[in-house]
Design goal:
There is one protein chain. This protein is mainly β. The protein is built from no helices and 5 strands. It has one domain. 0% of the residues lie in helices and 78% in strands. β3 and β4 form a beta hairpin. The chain is elongated.
Length: 80
Amino acid sequence: MYQCKKSNTYLLNGSMDVKTDLYKSNFAMPFALNGHYFFKRAGVFEPFVGIGIGTLYSSPRLYFNVYSISGENWGFLARP
């Protein structure tokens, strides 16, 4: 994901103001174990169900001209 916001004044850490364009980006990488069960074929369609469980790594970043704020997060992942 990538997003650009026009020039504005932003308050950083409660003690500093910055007037600049703001660029946001987020890198996400899922790690999951997946399982699928395929039912008997019924004509043209092949119905199935699946489940996945694992973890998700995320690295959000904010760019203020030459400055940046970043972080690293890990979370739980479950999918149908």
